[in-house]
Specification:
The protein has about 375 residues and is α/β, with parallel strands linked by helices. The protein has 2 domains: about 300 residues, no CATH class; about 40 residues, no CATH class. The chain has 10 helices and 17 strands.
Length: about 375
């Protein structure tokens, strides 16, 4: 059974032997938009069996092998390029779902590099038609307050998108822009003349309550969850999210024994309770309280907490390997945390295009 720390021997494109980490779960990616700009590269590297990753903290490069990979979580603001590659994942029996960040900052020009909203909505629906409902998760991330965007404005933006996605998603994940804690975000906003307003507990609670009411009144009935937030707003039915989520992987890939073994999950069939000598036969199924129902007669039980302790304090994600690289996303959003500068991102994008199949994302 593969472990998250497993390392294997691989042969590089150059013919040289090397050691590589072989993750079971791949995140593609929190660090850049691989589906939008590097989908062809990623699937070529998947076919070749490895790619090269640069540690953002120490600059050390290492190899990531895909031999043991059983599941991929994609993150994107424009995942349309994935459509032509998803059949390949089915062929090689690798599961996936998509964290689709679908914000509406068109009027304010905070995301000048993303396609028009109408096209992004269309892409969302096409992906759901391809993968099935539940495998494309709507994110409005981050929620930004500025001198031109009020809580009411944000709620109106959410309403407009939510009405269009009502039958296409089960969940809305969001976060509150925590600008002071992220120097790059603060610097990028100030550099671009965006007069931001920090959230506090009062404004977060106000937004959460109104979002809860909207979700109920408009009949969406979305699951609502925050990403990486300390504040507890469960009184409004809003949970703390796991974006790299073992529950979803179990739901969509419970027949993959290798993945279930890695996650320490037992798949069981419903059994009737045993008859008592003092009672008539009771055919009520015996199902543990923490079971995940998969079909009417199959359920899953997790044997361990898979949370990644290396993530932020309030991040609920399970263990995975992110294969992206900072300073490579040419969406050029004004508030970006993953780019030091627009110039660096564009320069690296050009480097990639000069060698689009190289083992590094930047060529």
């Amino acid at each position: 059974m593969a472990k998250s720390t497993d390392k294997i021997k691989i042969i590089l494109d150059s013919g040289v032997s090397a050691e590589a980490q072989a993750p079971v779960i791949v995140s593609a990616s929190r660090s850049t938009d691989i589906p939008a700009f590097y989908a062809d590269w990623f699937f070529e590297r998947l076919r070749r069996g490895y790619s090269t990753w640069t540690n953002p903290f120490n600059g050390v490069t290492s190899y990531i092998a895909y031999r043991n990979t059983r599941f991929i979580v994609f993150w994107s603001k424009n995942p349309r390029p994935l459509l032509e590659h998803l059949d390949y994942l089915t062929e090689i029996n690798i599961g996936c779902y998509i964290q689709y960040t679908l914000n509406d900052y068109e009027a304010e020009g905070l995301e000048k590099g993303v396609p028009p909203m109408s096209q992004r909505i269309e892409t969302f629906k096409m992906l759901v038609d391809k993968l099935g409902k539940g495998r494309v998760i709507w994110r409005f991330d981050p929620m930004i307050l500025t001198d031109k965007i009020s809580i009411g404005d944000l709620l109106e933006k959410v309403k407009n998108i939510g009405d269009q996605l009502m039958n296409y998603t089960e969940k809305l994940v969001f976060s509150f822009a925590d600008i002071a804690s992220y120097r790059k975000v603060k610097s990028n906003l100030e550099k671009n003349g965006i007069n931001y307003i920090e959230w506090d507990e009062a404004t977060m609670s106000e937004f959460a309550e109104k979002l809860y009411e909207m979700n109920r009144e408009r009949g969406w009935n979305f699951e609502l969850a925050t990403c990486g937030e300390k504040i507890d707003i469960e009184q409004y039915g809003i949970e703390h999210n796991r974006c790299v989520d073992d529950d979803l992987m179990i739901r969509f890939a419970y027949q993959d024994k290798d993945l279930m073994d890695f996650l320490k999950v037992n798949i069981r069939r419903v059994q009737p309770s045993a008859p008592s000598m003092f009672e008539e036969f009771d055919d009520t199924p015996i199902i543990p309280a923490d079971a995940i129902m998969l079909t009417p007669d199959i359920y899953a039980v997790k044997q361990k907490n898979n949370r990644d302790k290396g993530q932020r304090q309030f991040c609920g994600c399970i263990v995975s390997k992110d294969i992206g690289q900072y300073n490579t996303c040419p969406h050029l959003c004004e508030y970006c945390y993953a780019n030091t500068s627009k110039e660096a991102a564009v320069a690296n994008w050009k480097r990639h295009n000069s060698n689009p199949n190289g083992d590094k994302i930047i060529g």
